[in-house]
Automatic annotation (TrEMBL):
A Pfam family of this chain: RGS
UniProt xrefs under Gene3D superfamilies: Regulator of G-protein Signalling 4, domain 2 (1.10.167.10)
Organism ancestry: Eukaryota, Fungi, Dikarya, Ascomycota, Saccharomycotina
Domain named RGS: residues: 273-343
Residue intervals passing through the bilayer: 351-373, 380-400, 436-456
Highest taxon, organism lineage: Eukaryota
Keywords, sorted A to Z: Membrane, Transmembrane, Transmembrane helix
Xref: PROSITE patterns: RGS (PS50132)
Name by which UniProt lists this protein: Protein involved in bud site selection during bipolar budding
InterPro entries given in the database record: Cell_Polariz_PKAAnc (IPR052246), RGS (IPR016137), RGS_sf (IPR036305), RGS_subdomain_2 (IPR044926)
Native source species: Komagataella phaffii (strain GS115 / ATCC 20864) (Yeast)
Length: 461
């Protein structure tokens, strides 16, 4: 997983090439999940789904992929696909919520209309010159037609809810619905007639919008023993048309403005899927991913030719990117964030200053020996440079700072202060144990060196 940008890897703090500039942006983009305690190191799936806490949280992994791996485009793609999935869920959930509200309102209206009303008697004060009987017949026919349509719509709504076509939690059923593979079976001719009306209206709307995917029908019916029942394929555009008709009907009845943007539209899904296509899979894409060509061809075929926008379009690429991050990037992330609590820069600084203080310790020790400074308390001063030098060298070798571990902190590039609170329970316990071991080892080595140079007899040269 390499970064092929001509300008190379951006320095820390420059987020021009990434989708997120800080932790709060990422939290808005990906809602937090439940943080269940783990008695082990986390998996990549748990990190990506925000089931972990600092220092192995999603934002820390995001910064690691950007600064250490220079492969932020792969993680950006994975997050964009998850966002597209959430958008699809919101679309289906919006359809379901709006249809349910309309269904309840329709039932309430039917109950209210069923209450008998008293009609004032006609005292003969007015007679229509156009024929009262004709007007009454036309009115009754219109009312009867509307009532017939209303009953058919109610039955259709009840079937949609009973069959649970608008399932937004099951990803397979979600994709099946968005692909237009959801079906209803009914023998009610009135419901079938209502479905046919929605089919025609949906197709006319699609033509007026200039849809490029004209080869895809909005609705299909498959006869299966026509005298008994018929299988009808329900597609999302048909339900959008149904909702628009219901809203228009409610506007006419209530004489109120029609509400807009009540839910995510299918156009939003197409826009989201096209954005992913143009960002990661086109030849001149800004963040083109270097994945097998057959995967890219399948995605472009499904989007450009088949006109699909369901989450399954990106599933193969998503799995490929996930495995690449899991095998190539995630082990290094755990090593730097869960096993260690110092950064690469800190490692180099500690290494350099550790050798310097050890040199000072040896220089002071040999100087006191060859100057024949016999008072042992004076010669014991070498314990200071020996301890500091040993501490810095051992912490650079093990990549862990005992003092930070004891106080529950670690060095990190994910924060402006350079320090991060260890909130993941297992990681905190692990770093505390390793920190105590490093502190013990440092103390033993420093004590041995100090005792040797303090007790060796002096000899002036």
């Amino acid at each position: 997983m390499n970064n092929y940008n001509p300008d190379g890897s951006p320095v820390h703090g420059d987020y021009v090439q990434s989708n997120f500039r800080n932790k709060h942006d990422l939290e808005k983009y990906s809602p937090p999940k439940s943080n269940d305690p783990h008695d082990r190191l986390p998996t990549l799936y748990e990190v990506l789904n925000r089931k972990t806490q600092t220092p192995v949280d999603l934002w820390s992994f995001y910064v690691y992929m950007k600064d250490s791996q220079s492969a932020i485009d792969y993680l950006d793609f994975w997050l964009d696909v998850i966002q597209h999935l959430n958008l699809c869920k919101s679309y289906v959930k919006g359809l379901k919520t709006t249809l349910t509200a309309n269904y309840r309102q329709r039932n309430a209206t039917n109950v209210a209309s069923a209450i008998p009303r008293k009609t004032p008697p006609n005292n003969g004060s007015f007679v229509s010159p156009f024929g009262a009987n004709d007007i009454g017949n036309n009115s009754r026919e219109s009312v009867g037609s509307q009532k017939h349509k209303s009953i058919s719509s109610s039955v259709l709504l009840d079937m949609i809810m009973t069959e649970n076509l608008l399932e937004d939690e099951d990803n397979n059923r979600l994709s099946s619905f968005l692909k237009g593979e959801a079906t209803l079976r009914t023998s009610d001719p009135n419901v079938n007639q209502r479905i046919e009306e929605l089919k025609r209206h949906s197709q006319s709307i699609g033509l007026n919008m200039g849809a490029s995917n004209s080869n895809l029908s909005v609705f299909e019916t498959q006869p299966e023993n026509r005298e008994i029942n018929r299988i009808s394929t329900i597609k999302p555009e048909m339900l959008e048309t149904f909702i628009k008709e219901e809203m228009d009907s409610a506007q006419l009845k209530n004489d109120s403005p029609r509400p807009e943007n009540l839910f995510v539209t299918r156009a939003d899904l197409r826009s989201s899927s096209r954005k992913i296509l143009y960002t990661y899979f086109m030849e001149a894409a800004e963040k083109r991913l270097f994945i097998p060509e057959y995967i890219i061809k399948n995605i472009r075929h499904n989007l450009e030719t088949e006109g699909r926008d369901d989450p399954e379009v990106f599933e193969e690429a998503k799995e490929y990117v996930f495995k690449a991050m899991e095998n190539e990037a995630f082990p290094g992330f755990l090593l730097s964030n869960a096993i260690s609590n110092i950064t690469v820069t800190s490692h180099l600084v500690r290494l350099i200053f550790g050798f310097f203080f050890l040199f000072v310790g040896f220089w002071v020790g040999y100087t006191l020996i060859f100057l024949n400074w016999n008072p042992k308390p004076v010669r014991a001063v070498v314990v200071i440079p020996f301890f500091i030098g040993t501490y810095l060298l051992i912490t650079s070798i093990y990549n862990i700072d005992p003092v930070l571990s004891i106080f529950g902190y670690g060095e990190s590039k994910a924060t402006h202060s350079g320090l991060i609170k260890l909130k993941e329970p297992f990681v905190r316990r692990l770093l505390l144990k390793r920190g105590l071991w490093v502190l013990l080892l440092t103390s033993v080595i420093a004590a041995v060196l100090s005792i040797i140079f303090a007790l060796v007899p002096g000899k002036r040269l």
